[in-house]
Please model this.
Amino acid sequence: MSTSTIHAELWGTMYKAGDNREKLNRLSALLRQVMKEELTDRQRDAFLMHVGQGMRQKEIAALWGIGPSVVCRHIQRAEAHLRRWTQKLADPVSDTCI
Model:
């Protein structure tokens, strides 16, 4: 999904009339799509297990049979990707300026 498409979705969602639940659902779907397209499977899974399910990095590492530092790297990279996309979404002019 291109950044301009994401911008159009986000700004359209924010400014259309309708209830907040619908807006929240559309933003949630957009975030899931960005996570699916921008993160590796391991980054996405580690992030969701840690943030969404509250699992500790040691627990994820034991489940996957890898070291906690590797899990930490997956989570950090996922957060960095999501932070960059969030910043791009918050500033729709950012990728049109040179």
